[in-house]
């Protein structure tokens, strides 16, 4: 079976040690069967010593670094990793389920006929099969599918943020960095960036590190002003359901759930949310869930630590006092 090489692809050009990558790193370390197994983080972009230091502090055994001084380009990123794969052969590659991570994983999976499982919620190792088992919800969250990639030695998956915890490991830094050089040929540049637009500043809130969130569902459409006033009073960030996005109550980058983002705040106050499985998958990381809904049979109550059977506006009025 041999020693395993586990790779994590950092999806950033500069800030490699994101919380998302550190979470995946912690999971990868748990998948090591022996000291000889090696967890590497692949970084493509600028030389950032303090970022490498953090990755080592969080347990990386090795960093594979390819310097790219010019502006970030997805084609360079993908081709660089494809070229690395020809040279060195990992057993498994874990990608953040970010736009870059998902694009890169999909392209490489087709190119190398390697199995790819999207948005895993857990990974295990099966000794008998000598394969990794990727676990993810399927069929509208009604089952947990266990997926093995059998058509190639290389196995890949993407992982959403806040599925695993990150953990500091050591201050004894090994500085095991393997430099890799990749020269992109101009003819290979398939994607050209014509323009970059920043998000509206008002929408650039740090949702993932918010400690208190108000989750709004369609049932709160008539009282969003009150909701905003109360959220401001408690320093809470407002996020919501897909229905709330469709009703234009919140911006789409605040959608929580299967096709949105996952959050893990200390307190999650859910108002006017029915509790569809596609939504609740995004709030499972919350430490405390309080749900408010006038329908005593609302499915959200099954996931809540405290339930309040009442109209959302009644509770908000109390909180506003
Ligand atoms: C492939 C796919 C992906 C999806 N991805 C997501 C996703 O990422 N995120 C997501 O959220 N959804 C997602 N959905 C949609 C999901 O299935 C639900 O339709 C959606 O979550 C429902 O949103 P809601 O709870 O706001 O609305 P509703 O289901 O309409 O519920 C509204 C609730 O408000 C309550 N209510 C009414 N009046 C009040 C009041 N005055 N005060 C308080 N409560 C009140 C009602 O009792 C009801 O329970 C997805 C669906 C599919 C098919």
From TrEMBL:
<dbReference type="InterPro" id="IPR029035">
    <property type="entry name" value="DHS-like_NAD/FAD-binding_dom"/>
</dbReference>
<dbReference type="InterPro" id="IPR014730">
    <property type="entry name" value="ETF_a/b_N"/>
</dbReference>
<feature type="domain" description="Electron transfer flavoprotein alpha/beta-subunit N-terminal">
    <location>
        <begin position="6"/>
        <end position="186"/>
    </location>
</feature>
<keyword id="KW-0285">Flavoprotein</keyword>
<keyword id="KW-0175">Coiled coil</keyword>
<feature type="binding site">
    <location>
        <begin position="255"/>
        <end position="259"/>
    </location>
    <ligand>
        <name>FAD</name>
    </ligand>
</feature>
<dbReference type="Pfam" id="PF01012">
    <property type="entry name" value="ETF"/>
</dbReference>
<dbReference type="InterPro" id="IPR014729">
    <property type="entry name" value="Rossmann-like_a/b/a_fold"/>
</dbReference>
<dbReference type="GO" id="GO:0050660">
    <property type="term" value="F:flavin adenine dinucleotide binding"/>
</dbReference>
<dbReference type="Pfam" id="PF00766">
    <property type="entry name" value="ETF_alpha"/>
</dbReference>
<feature type="binding site">
    <location>
        <position position="293"/>
    </location>
    <ligand>
        <name>FAD</name>
    </ligand>
</feature>
<dbReference type="GO" id="GO:0033539">
    <property type="term" value="P:fatty acid beta-oxidation using acyl-CoA dehydrogenase"/>
</dbReference>
<feature type="coiled-coil region">
    <location>
        <begin position="177"/>
        <end position="211"/>
    </location>
</feature>
<dbReference type="GO" id="GO:0009055">
    <property type="term" value="F:electron transfer activity"/>
</dbReference>
<protein>
    <submittedName>
        <fullName>Electron transfer flavoprotein subunit alpha/FixB family protein</fullName>
    </submittedName>
</protein>
<feature type="binding site">
    <location>
        <begin position="272"/>
        <end position="279"/>
    </location>
    <ligand>
        <name>FAD</name>
    </ligand>
</feature>
<dbReference type="InterPro" id="IPR014731">
    <property type="entry name" value="ETF_asu_C"/>
</dbReference>
<keyword id="KW-0274">FAD</keyword>
<comment type="similarity">
    <text>Belongs to the ETF alpha-subunit/FixB family.</text>
</comment>
<dbReference type="InterPro" id="IPR001308">
    <property type="entry name" value="ETF_a/FixB"/>
</dbReference>
<feature type="binding site">
    <location>
        <position position="218"/>
    </location>
    <ligand>
        <name>FAD</name>
    </ligand>
</feature>
């Amino acid at each position: 079976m041999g020693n395993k090489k586990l790779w994590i692809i950092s999806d950033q050009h500069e800030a490699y040690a994101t919380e998302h990558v550190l979470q995946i790193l912690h999971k990868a370390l748990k998948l090591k069967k022996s000291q000889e197994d090696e967890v590497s983080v692949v970084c493509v972009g600028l030389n950032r010593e303090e970022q490498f230091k953090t990755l080592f502090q969080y347990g990386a055994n090795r960093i594979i670094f390819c310097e790219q001084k010019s502006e970030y380009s997805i084609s360079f990123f993908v081709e660089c990793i494809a070229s690395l794969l020809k040279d060195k052969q990992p057993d498994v590659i874990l990608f953040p389920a970010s736009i870059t991570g998902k694009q890169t994983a999909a392209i490489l999976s087709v190119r190398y006929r390697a199995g790819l499982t999207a948005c895993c919620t857990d990974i295990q190792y099966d000794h008998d099969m000598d394969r990794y088992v990727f676990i993810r919800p399927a069929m509208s969250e009604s089952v947990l599918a266990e997926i093995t990639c059998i058509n190639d030695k290389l196995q890949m998956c993407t992982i959403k943020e806040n599925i695993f915890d990150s953990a500091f490991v050591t201050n004894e830094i090994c500085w095991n960095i393997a430099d890799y050089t990749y020269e992109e040929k101009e003819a290979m540049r398939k994607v050209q960036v014509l323009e970059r637009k920043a998000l509206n500043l008002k929408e650039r809130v740090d949702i993932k590190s918010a400690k208190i969130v108000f989750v709004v569902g369609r049932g709160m459409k008539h009282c969003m002003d009150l909701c905003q006033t109360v959220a401001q009073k408690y320093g809470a960030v407002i996020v919501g359901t897909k229905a709330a996005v469709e009703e234009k109550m919140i911006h789409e980058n605040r959608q929580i759930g299967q096709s949105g983002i996952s959050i893990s705040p200390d307190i999650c106050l859910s108002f006017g949310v029915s509790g569809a499985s596609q939504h609740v998958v995004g709030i499972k990381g919350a430490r405390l869930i309080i749900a408010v809904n006038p329908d005593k049979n609302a499915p959200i109550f099954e996931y809540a630590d405290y339930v309040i059977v009442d109209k959302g506006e009644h509770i908000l009025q109390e909180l506003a006092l």
